[in-house]
Structure formats: C-alpha cells, structure tokens
Amino acid sequence: AKVLATGLNLRLNQRALTLELVDNRQWRLTTECLEPDAIGQLETVLCRAIVVAIPAPQAAMLLHSLTESE
Which of 15, 27, 45, 52 could make a disulfide contact with 32, Cβ separation 3.0–4.6 Å? Predict the structure, then answer.
C-alpha cells in the first residue's frame, strides 16, 4: 500500500467535517485533527481529488451536503 501512496499528500488522524465542490474543479475539505498534541485544530485544504474510504454511514453524512445544493 505504501507504494501506491507515493507522491500523494495523505492526512492521518483527521476527522473529515465538511466536503464542498468549489467552482466545479476542486474540492474544499475541512478536517479536525485527532492527534493528542493538536486535538481540535481545524484545517481546510483544496484538492483536485478526494478518496472517501470510510464506512457508508459516515460517508453518507459527509456527502449529503453535496446533494443539498442541487
């Protein structure tokens, strides 16, 4: 798996809070840090692609906001 992640910007120990499509080109992802020394710190990043690899109930909650704007 490490070979597949070569060159990717991976974030570990983060809770995804919001996911928004920006200008139909990029994703805006807001996360909360779960590391003991930085717990609760928020970070927002712009991405060209997102891999959602979480259980379906959590994915549904995160992705639900995308259907509200249609």
Answer: 15
